[in-house]
């Protein structure tokens, strides 16, 4: 599940003296602003369906579905199936709590940092004379 933080976003975070949760989340997980908005909406509206989120976010359902897929891949959202009384089912989505998201950010950044350190250590070796 490694997602490489964007070098451009990483530089922006370093220049910004006080980056907010949203900026750090976007940078570390490599997600877009609309995916961060979806995550924040899920925090305040747990158990939402795609249709409900589409209304809250003023976005179409297909875009919300893509955002939710990305958030689930990154471990930032969960999906549960709920059976309807009338038959059929609906999926409800819940955001990973902020405390867990922080831990995921730490783990993701630590993994990326270890990878970059490995790359640095390879520079100037017998196979790479840079």
From TrEMBL:
Pfam families, per the entry: TrmB (PF01978)
Domain called Transcription regulator TrmB N-terminal: residue spans: 25-95
Highest taxon of source: Archaea
Protein name (record): Helix-turn-helix domain-containing protein
